Amino acid sequence: MTRFKTPLYILAIAFVVFAGWMVRARAVSMLSIDFDEDDYLRASQEYAHLIRTSDWSGFLETNYRPEHPPLAKIVMGLSLLSTPEEALTPDAATTAGPNSHLPRALLTPARTINAIFGTLTVFLLAIFDPLAGLLLATHTFTIKYVSQVMLEALPALTSLVTVLAYVQSKKGKARTNWLVASAVFLGLTAASKYLYCLVAVAILIDWFWDEKQKGNLRPFYTQALLWGIFSILVFFATDPYLWPAPIERLKESVLYHAGYSTGASEVKNADYPIWQPFVWVTMSPTQWHPGVFLVAPDFFITLFAIFGIRHLWKKQRVFAFWLAIAFLFLLVWPTKWPQYILMLTVPLSFSASQGIRQVWLNGMEWWKDRKSREKIKYNPRETRQAIPWLIPGLIAFTLLTLLPFIFQLAVSVTDFNRLSIRDGFQGGIWREFLGGITGQIAAIQPEFPFDSNKVQFTGLASYGPVFDFITGSGVLVFNIIWASVSIALQTTLGLGLALLLHQKGVRFGKFWQAIFILPWAIPELIGALLWLNIFVPDVGFLALAAQKYGAGFPFNFLIGWERTPNLWFFVLLIPAIWYGFPLIMLASSAGLKMIPTDVFEAAAIDGATIWETFRYITLPLLMPLLLPALIIRAIFAFNQFYLLWAFQYWKQQSSTLALLSYNLFNPSGPFNGQFSASAIVNIITVIILIGFVALFNRETRSKEELKNA
């Protein structure tokens, strides 16, 4: 089998490259004209004209849209030399929409050169990891922005070469040559688009990490300084626009980005929340360009990347740093255009390939373990004795959980809507469901949203549009972030208060504990209305206090919270934490009382610090009681409804799936009267929560097995 390994490896790379080129070539010809393509096509035309006329001095004064360096524009200009020169694309403001009249004769070669760079990026990553290359080849946002007249394709390629050259330098052979190559391509990256230079930060951190572990930091400082200086020299050498006045023009170019990100009207009007980059990496532009992309695996690439990040850290730490730094930057950077995520799609694809491998290996291990386990022998007599005690619970489970779930499942595979409600409740739902699953009725492919006056079986056809909506609108991302952040803060507050009240010498401990439990005793809707009285615009306590005390009021920054997604999120977190922390506090308090004092005394004798005692003793001993409470609170937070419903100033993307399900058949909702869409959202919610609980059970079981080993 070994002799076939190399040919199969080469064949896999060839297939990945072929697939990457084919989907990019298809996008070149089929994608509609997008924002900024007219700007960069005009810049390319200017450079093409300078080359045709041999006006080399013109490079010193030419750089249309000088906020970006010129190298990528020059390269696209070279691609236009094979076409007849045409009239210069008209100048347009940054607020202008796409110019749909761009000549195809110019658009195609400029797009094609970028598609070639995108395919080369796929090729290099495929050499490193064929599966990662395949994921990058099919990532639709990457396909889109490397197949248009944009600046992303060249810096995405050069930044990958920068990292790969650095990785090769770590192997010790020809180290200096590889570091020089890394510096050269870092300079070319800077001369193409500044933001992609974040790979330098990832490299320096990884480099420092390695040398510190070796105890060899002094040579690192010298080598890193020379590496940085050489890359800067390459940057200036490949950016002729800077030569006449390097400092002034570079300062003007860099400072433009800061002013644009905070003052441009298009940025303000977009009003993207801080978590918008997570939305971009979980959705696909198939909604913007129907029929262009053959597959849309973006969501699953991100999902597997989450599972693979731990193994990416072990295998290639610099890629993990690259992914983390790029994500952190995009979260804090005010301009959140979707093309920026190409800064991280290479390490994202690499992490996803590791995640796929680990999920496969874990699945195989589970299957082998399942097959090797001895079958549990049941005692028939004990089973018969238990049946009478199980029947009431089974009846309740069937009536309250199983039957409603089956009904939701039946609705989800039909086109049940407000026009077909009469037929649906006269047996149409069950008629189509039973006929569909038995093969007696063929699934139809109706257009969405549905408007038939008779219920029809659609199979899984209606799942796609609904899933695209909850990912594309950001609802799913918001729901996950909302649950994660609120539970993290509830846990921090609840556990902190439990530890504080557990300390010796705390006076009126029981009284304070009773006070802190009160929010949990109040129904969520009532509590939400109480907080709404504080934050309601214009007439709430917050607005009235701001009017009375003026600029000196410390909470003035919250005025207008309903118009800003980030403030909206912050304001809603306050009542969510207030409502959820008591359960965590109670579970932690009960757990603390069960920990013997001898354990802490032994830790103190051994010289453990407060943090070490908490991390290695208190927290592990609390987990048996704390984890179930966390699961309960996580499920409630993921399904949060009343709080968000009471605060009516929500945006479509700032919604949980539970609230979205309600608004799907609300006249003002995004899918008015689409009951099947509401059922699909509920099914997706159940699947997510089942997966979450399954992962929790697996982690808990693994820890128990490790502890008992």
Could you outline the blueprint of secondary structure elements for this entry?
Elements (H helix, E strand, L loop, with lengths): L4 H26 L6 H16 L18 H9 L24 H25 L1 H9 L1 H6 L7 H17 L5 H16 L7 H17 L2 H21 L8 H18 L1 H6 L5 H7 L15 H18 L1 H16 L12 H28 L7 H33 L8 H17 L25 H10 L2 H28 L6 H13 L2 H12 L5 H9 L15 H30 L2 H9 L4 H29 L3 H5 L10 H8 L10 H34 L1
Helix pairs in contact: 1-4, 1-5, 2-3, 3-4, 4-5, 4-7, 5-16, 7-8, 8-10, 9-15, 14-15, 14-16, 15-16, 17-29, 19-29, 20-24, 20-26, 21-24, 24-26, 28-29
If you had to describe this structure to a student in words, what would you say it looks like?
By secondary structure, this protein is mostly helical. The protein folds into 2 domains: 343 residues, no CATH class; 239 residues, Orthogonal Bundle (MetI-like fold), CATH 1.10.3720.10. Helix content is 69%, strand content 0%. It has 29 helices and no strands. The protein starts with a helix and ends with a helix. The model has no long low-confidence stretch (mean pLDDT 87).
Summarize model confidence as the mean pLDDT.
87
What percentage of amino acids are in beta strands? under 5%
Main structural class: mainly alpha
* Number of contiguous helices: 29
The main pleated sheet reads as: none
End-to-end C-alpha gap: 37 Å
What Rg do the Cα atoms give?
30 Å
Helix fraction by DSSP (H/I, runs of at least 4): 55-70%
Query: How many domains comprise the coordinates?
Result: 2
Overall strand count: 0
Order of helices and strands: HHHHHHHHHHHHHHHHHHHHHHHHHHHHH
Oligomeric state as shown: single chain
Overall outline? globular
- pLDDT below 50 for ≥5 consecutive residues: which ranges? none
